[in-house]
Amino acid sequence: MINNVAVIGAGTMGNGIAHVFAQHNFHVTLIDISSQQLEKALATISKNLDRQITKGQITEAEKQSALQNIVISTDIDQGVAAAHLVVEAATENENLKLQIFRQIDAIAPQDCILATNTSSISITKIAAATQRPQQVIGMHFMNPVPVMKLVEVINGYHTSSYVTGTIVELSKQLGKIPALANDYPGFVANRILMPMINEAIYTLQEGVADVEAIDTIMKLGMAHPMGPLQLADFIGLDVCLSIMKVLHEGFGDPKYAPCPLLVNMVHAGRLGVKTGEGFYVYTPGSKELVVSEKFRK
Ligand code: NAD
User: Which parts of the sequence belong to the 3-hydroxyacyl-CoA dehydrogenase NAD binding domain (predicted)?
Assistant: First the structure.
């Protein structure tokens, strides 16, 4: 029975994951190396719970109960010592994740399931850093976690069917819809999404169409909520590039080669929303979508 959940990493995804578990009455320990990041995460969770109150989805009492279900900690060992499930959502860096999994494997109770929210790192490789590869699984939430329904559940080579079944059921308990994938580069979501984004950037690079036209065609033509260039800005162009590299190296197929314009933009520090500019310019407080000067006619 899973009651105590440790979430490692209190960034964009970690605060959302903690929010959703806490809202569904799990005891959550949210862990980060930065206490500032932990305070910021709590403020974000509180603000996002307020938004749910405004929408009539939860009551003030449910907000307070969710907040009471969360404790924060900078001590990873203490945080995972009584966990039934750990969900790792630290920075997307392979060596860091291997080190975290080595550490939590040594401390977490024997039957604790170790899940990772990685977008692209091999679950099997992460599991190999532990003595319990059958209890390691991908639990890939989508951003923003409190809103997005999908959990991509990824089986590593050794993941047991019991662990998969537990995570599938747990995802449903969180009000999410789980979908199963196996551990190949990019799993399902990013294997399909990232080449589409990469192709959109090639289309721009080759002058087939401008930023607005590409996004309008994909948005209205395919009924996507946002165009691929805007989505790339939202995800972060550095993240898109690193996932394309995982696909390219993992399959050894030139069809996954990152578009040179994507590479250039990352080198130039134009990473999208997080740096204030990518294909579009982002001004705090403004929702207007303005194409970057670089791509204006
Ligand atoms: P982020 O940079 O917003 O947050 C990462 C957090 O991890 C930071 O607060 C950092 O201080 C913390 N951290 C770093 N080292 C740590 C350690 N040793 N112990 C504890 N905390 C540590 O990153 P994010 O966007 O939240 O991504 C987290 C994970 O989720 C990544 O694996 C990423 O691939 C995946 N993911 C991201 C998205 C997205 O849209 N951002 C979507 C799906 C999955």
Answer: 4-183
